[in-house]
Design a protein that fits this description.
Layout: E1 5-6, E2 24-35, E3 38-39, E4 46-51, E5 54-59, H1 63-66, E6 68-71, E7 75-81, E8 90-95, E9 106-107, E10 114-115, H2 141-156, E11 161-162, E12 169-170, E13 208-213, H3 218-231, H4 245-254, H5 260-263, H6 267-271, H7 274-298, H8 306-316, H9 332-347, E14 358-360, H10 361-372, H11 379-386, H12 389-392, E15 398-401, E16 407-410, H13 416-426, E17 431-432, H14 433-440, H15 444-457, E18 461-464, E19 472-475, H16 477-481
Antiparallel strand pairs: 1-6, 2-3, 2-4, 2-13, 4-5, 5-6, 7-8, 8-13, 9-10, 11-12, 14-16, 15-16, 17-19, 18-19
Helix pairs in contact: 7-8, 9-11
Length: 482
Amino acid sequence: MERWERWEVRAADVRAALAPGEALVAEQNGVGMYDRQEKAPLRAAGIAVLTTHRLAYVDAAQAAEQSCFVRLDAIRQTEHYAGFLKSSPKITIVLREQTAAPSGPWTCAVCNFQNTKATSLDVCALCGVARPTEAPSATTSAQESASASSNTASASAVPEKGCPRCTFLNHPAMTHCEMCEALLTAPPAPPTPIPTASHAVAPTSPPYVKLSFRKGGDKAFYAQLRSTLQSKPWLVEPRRRPAAGIDGVLSQDMAPVAPAPDAFQDLEALMKQAKQMVDLAATLRTQLERRERLLAHDGKQSHDDTGTMIQSALVQLGLAAPAVTPEMVKSEREYHVELARELASLLTAPNGMLDRGVLALDEVWGLWNRARGTALVSPKVLRHAVAYLPEVTTPPIALRVLRSGRTILYTPRFADAAFEARVYEHLATPQTTLQLAAAEQLPLALLSELLHTVAQQTTRIVRDDCDLRDTRWFRNTVLIAT
């Protein structure tokens, strides 16, 4: 088990034991290990774990003693065996031979680039060629000098090639004469000594292990392993992107996608019970809608707690209640109020649509209809519903029309007084519009409109409009002096 390190971890604690920046890629239970061609008797049943930085085996019986891992940068080659008859599928992991890692600067033999420090794989920073390994010196200085002299003697013993036409002595590697380009004949090769038993060296194979998948899952695990080895995620360094400008927009679009790989890690386990949950949700929803239709047809009102019980059960299961439609309420005003409550639950939820404090109304309309599915609302109904938002939200969410005609929803954090005070604090030193957008984490166009609106209503903030540069904002020092 060369290159494998001990890992004191249980199967349930794998995620918690990962290093910073390391993420779980795949897991598969029912896996045994082979050390080369021999079975590892103490590692016969466990879980194969693949992360962005290592391949690990977590034993099911003795996790703290028998669990181990190997770093992905130590893997040289992988092979897949599909199994035959009673032989289970296997994945062979061939490792690089462990050599003494040379330290210090070195020069690439291919591109002649001066590398100042070694990377995790000891490759050239310019062309990517691996650093040449240095054989460990185990001989004395006398043996080294003797070896050098013998190499010099053997090199000088190689005769030069004489040209049969012009008798010019050419280098032994030349095939044509450098003077007359005549074809050169190879000199007679010296007799090759036959190695004796004392000089014969037994060939050594690189270290490797086999993972035996006795419960299947080998193809998916091998595909994830190959993909991870090709992408080399252990070499990727995360970058922090600004929150304003084009990079800010791209970061916001990519933010919901980033947790997707981790979110779908347990998808296989979730789908085992998904059918039961879907059937239960459909049954409860059908009972609720049937009851509401019967009561509406008879013109009666229910005084029992059946509807409340069903709605509560849906909430406890984490399933969304049916979208509000005009048939569920008596009057148009009640319909708009219920829509306002539904919209408020989306806006005020953790990491909801209004998490940043201000949002354009057209964006709210698109996101809300996407969440409602097929029960869409028109822009006219949306305008009627948002009028009731201050009554059903705490803190109140209000509607505002900017000078350009753009309509937004905002929280008290972006009311005129609060926004003006916050901008005034930012202007301890002069700031551009882009710098203020980064500080407030708002789109540049939206923040520019808010700034111009506040500047027209107050005398504490002034601006310097530049044709060739961004607008700069200052505190009104003249007003402060007076």
